[in-house]
């Protein structure tokens, strides 16, 4: 039996290795045995069951076989299921998120069942779905963990600082370690290639705005530290933030944006319709219409979902930002 702590709880690396070696044998990379090549995920999964997971809440959960009917309680886990090609059948807020989020476009029309709120899911609906694994969220589902595990084995995830950690932890639960490594490598390569394409724009500044209310025309700035995939010169696209640009999210005013006067505005909206309505309204506002980015046609639409930080979001953001900059 394979026992995995992985990245689901914070433990020293040395302790992690002891757990892995003691319960699963010596890892392939340390034993002289060649690891299966990337892409042979089915072979790895066949060899790795049953497995015991110690989740982010400290629960020890034994899974007898690779899951084939997964429910995720928090909607953000859908993007990781998609990246890993996992057998997802239900999710919190599935209907609205799949309809609105471009990152989840491949799930449209696939019959993913909406189980209600991520904080208070419909337990009867989950029971009807007959899942063989439920993935919960430590921040939202701690109070209903006992109810969820009566339906199916339940693993609570959460507390990750990077998308790589979260992808790896998710993969360890569902037996998709090779797929995760492959997707991570692909995403890192996409970022490196995109960073190279944008290198000639290194003197240009980029402000990332999110429309928080289409009706009230309110916005917020998405912080440079929290959007490392955009602004990091090593792990992201290497975009340059304007002077006085915040590291963390904060409310934005037209006047405050005018002080920064960025060369490009990355405008995140729920939909292209919401984006068009906002920019049409903005064209009638003297402060907005006089921004350098607006006058030069350098306002780039990004679907709201791309700031979620998942590898799927990073992929979509990189593609859209590169296209928006180079084509303009």
TrEMBL record:
Record-annotated membrane-spanning stretches: none
Keyword terms, alphabetized: Signal, Transport
CDD domains to which the protein is assigned, alphabetical: FhuD
GO biological process: iron coordination entity transport
SUPFAM superfamilies cross-referenced by the UniProt entry: Helical backbone' metal receptor
Signal peptide: 1-24
Protein's UniProt name: Iron complex transport system substrate-binding protein
Organism encoding this protein: Desulfitobacterium chlororespirans DSM 11544
